[in-house]
Amino acid sequence: MPTFRQFDPLVVNEYVTDTYLFEPHRHTYFEIIYIAHGKGVHLLNNNFIIYEDGDLFLMSPDDQHHFEVDEPTRFVVVKFTDDYFNFSNPSPNGLPIIPQVIMQAHALKEQKLGFDIKAAKSLKTAMQAITDYKDSTDLSTSGFVYFQILSVFGLIQQSLRIISGLHVASGFDKHQLLNYIHQNIYDPQKCRIDVIASYFNISPTYFGAYFKRNFGVSYRTYFHQYRWSLIEKRLKIGKLNNKQIAVEFGFSDESHFSNYCQKIKKQRALDQ
């Protein structure tokens, strides 16, 4: 079983297991988990995310998670406290990366980060370099390790920009559109048709036709189906009450949320 020194600014560990060694838990530190190889399911904040070789997960304080291992998995774990990035490693001038902020991004809790071939190779190399230094006595103050971790966050930030739809200069793209919706599903105002159309600099009419043509359903149908799939997970797991779910998904109050649930369930019953 791996051992973790909870109060060090930085701890790195790796292990292979066919049974995850920890019960569902929260912690007070930040944690990066890289899947060097293996398959299974990551339960993160009431979400079930299938994992495989090369996947990367980030947990911030108060996140709750657990892994269900389907095939023997090699986990590479990097844990750090707030002190690590304020401790003895000054950030490079002008580097727009604040790891603690990045790790709290909501998109990271609902879906996996996507890396292209070059980014996936760079991530693997950086994680291996970090792992090679895991037993160093100066791990927390090593400049080499520090910059390897920053390079990982650079790759994460690049992926998050794509998820949030910031790279739209090359034109309107259906993947960017879905990423925008998934990122903002918790804020109904940002998911209004006129707001999305304005964001991508297209007309609302074109948006509606484009969505139906590319996804086979209307935008409103897709929005409610996706939103309901996330809500339904939380209801089934039972860790959150209706009021907490209502707040998370931007409902005006618990009554509004209950009415929404009843309406969706009634519609689904009619569709069957």
UniProtKB/TrEMBL annotation:
Organism per entry: Mucilaginibacter limnophilus
Molecular function via GO: DNA-binding transcription factor activity; sequence-specific DNA binding
Superkingdom in the source lineage: Bacteria
SUPFAM superfamilies for the chain: Regulatory protein AraC (SSF51215)
Record's keyword annotation contains Zinc-finger: no
Protein name, entry field: Helix-turn-helix domain-containing protein
HTH araC/xylS-type domain: residues covered: 175-259
Matches recorded under InterPro entries: AraC-bd, HTH-like, HTH_AraC, RmlC-like_jellyroll
Alphabetically ordered keywords of this record: DNA-binding
Pfam families on file: AraC_binding, HTH_18
